[in-house]
Design brief:
By secondary structure, this protein is an all-alpha fold. It has a domain of 111 residues. The chain is built from 18 helices and no strands. The two termini are 57 Å apart.
Length: 499
């Protein structure tokens, strides 16, 4: 009976998870799909024909499957398009998608104008998207606050263990049993705390999505360098002379930094180009639209728009596009070449819709006006979201400094008090406390390094952006440890344990 209940529970859990993921995917793609349908309707293309064209939209994988399902119901099962869409609306778990299909069916049956319905629905969806962005930012802010509380708990655990360990050292000198175990410290510092951070990163992964595609090469490069860096650090553990010469905390900081810097550099190059493309594309589409209003052909409008000089790094791609058009390359082929060089999903989707609009309607001015208007709104939404989340990055550096300073000062205080309170036991106890300082230093540096990935996911939606934060936070933690130790040593004029 228990086995059966467990199986049913797992099955229901998988179904719920699958439904939730499907809903999220649908609602993230829906604004762009409705925009595409609105562009097609403005160009005089029926919704069913738009569904058929959507089957080739690899950038919208969820709706690509939906389109294949609609076409299968119509052409294989012999149903009319409205019936096929009605059945889709009954099956979907997304209320927004269900309202869109239901409203369209009702509009058709009442004799309404499809293009007007699409425009009004598109306006409503983008308003909802803007409000959803604000709610999403608030949720992420709550997540960051929860992570802050977790780090405060870590700080309290560190301090508590320092006090207990110091007491244990005194009891050891008096011949009493030790109430603390180093194994507990290692498990708490190197297993429990990183595990909690990974849980928060998993939650952030589901809450915040990146606009950049295909970052796997960066992750692969980072893994290679990290494995090499970990090997070097492991060698320093087994070769005491190497560890003593540099110091394990400094060695760990160097290894962790070297492990992520190559990937961080590569990500910086990619993100700089793609974020510039996201910034420039709305202006590019607006230039094309304004040129179209003068009556020239779409291709000439694109050539005219590419001659603008203030697009920054995006200009290199526009020059290539202009050259291909002048050589007679089709817009479809130009878009395929463009996809190989740009990783930004919004840029690719908007460029795809521009190509579709020009191909089916000869670049109807009304359709391009609609596209440029909503590409500007989408860019504004993304910019506002990043601007609201950027300040939380500062908190990560505050965490690193606070954990390093407080823990080290408490530990050093116990180290110094030992010299003054029990001079006869100073040599043995100082070795014990110096070991604690070294252990906690390693744990703090590693924890701050992991926090960098969490902040990268929060600020830009991907872990690759956290590579630079991981390196900077590890360095910040190490510098804070050294400064706090030297500060305490300078005040009390005692020998410093190596950090």
């Amino acid at each position: 009976m228990q086995t059966s209940e467990g199986f049913v529970g797992k099955l229901l859990g998988k179904i719920v998870k699958s439904t939730s993921e499907e809903k999220d995917e649908i609602e993230s793609e829906l604004p762009f799909v409705v925009m595409l349908f609105a562009l097609m309707a403005t160009s005089g293309i029926s919704l069913y024909e738009s569904w058929k064209r959507l089957r080739k939209a690899t950038l919208l994988p969820r709706f690509k499957k939906e389109a294949e399902e609609v076409v299968r119901h119509v052409e294989v099962l012999g149903k009319d398009p409205l019936t096929a869409m009605y059945e889709l609306s009954e099956k979907t778990g997304s209320r927004m998608y269900r309202d869109f299909l239901g409203g369209f069916i009702s509009s058709i049956k009442s004799g309404g104008k499809v293009s007007d319905y699409m425009r009004s629905k598109l306006r409503a969806i983008f308003e909802l998207r803007s409000k959803a962005m604000i709610r999403s930012t608030e949720k992420i802010a709550t997540l960051v606050e929860g992570y802050s509380v977790m780090l405060i708990v870590i700080l309290c655990v560190y301090i508590l263990y320092v006090l207990l360990s110091s007491t244990a050292s005194l009891e050891l000198m008096a011949g009493i049993s030790i109430p603390t175990s180093p194994i507990i410290a290692y498990l708490a510092i190197f297993v429990l705390m990183p595990f909690i951070s990974f849980v928060f990163m998993l939650i952030a992964h589901n809450a915040q999505k990146s606009t950049l595609l295909d970052l796997k090469p960066i992750y692969k490069k980072t893994m290679i360098f990290l494995i090499a860096a970990i090997g070097i650090f492991a060698a320093s553990l087994f070769v005491p002379a190497l560890g003593d010469a540099v110091g394990l905390p400094l060695m760990l900081t160097i290894c962790l930094t070297i492990g992520v810097v190559p990937g961080a550099i590569q990500y910086y190059k990619i993100s700089r180009v793609n974020y510039n493309a996201e910034k420039s594309l709305p202006s590019f589409l607006r230039d094309i639209t304004e040129s179209q209003k003068t009556g020239i052909s779409p291709e000439k409008s694109i050539i005219h728009a590419t001659k603008r000089r203030d697009y920054g790094r995006f200009s290199q791609f526009l020059i290539l596009i202009r050259s291909q058009i002048e050589w007679g390359v089709s817009l479809k082929d130009i878009f395929e070449n463009f996809k190989q060089k740009i990783n930004s999903w919004p840029v690719l989707v908007n460029f795809m819709m521009m190509v579709e609009t020009i191909e089916v309607g000869g670049g109807a001015v009304g359709a391009l006006e609609l596209l440029s208007e909503y590409s500007e709104k989408e860019f504004e939404i993304q910019v506002n979201k990043r601007a609201l989340l950027k300040p939380y990055v500062i908190l990560a550096f505050v965490w690193s400094v606070l954990i390093a300073l407080t823990t080290t000062i408490v530990t050093m205080t116990m180290y110094i008090l030992t010299q003054f309170a029990t001079p006869s036991l100073y040599e043995i106890m100082s070795a014990e406390i110096a070991g604690q300082i070294g252990t906690f230093s390693l744990g703090i540096i590693f924890q701050c390094w992991i926090s960098g990935f969490f902040m990268g996911k929060i600020s830009e939606g991907n872990f690759a952006s956290g590579l630079k934060y991981a390196a900077l936070l590890a360095i910040t933690a190490y510098v804070s440890l050294v400064l706090s130790q030297n500060f305490m040593v300078g005040i009390f004029d005692v020998p410093a344990p190596s950090v």
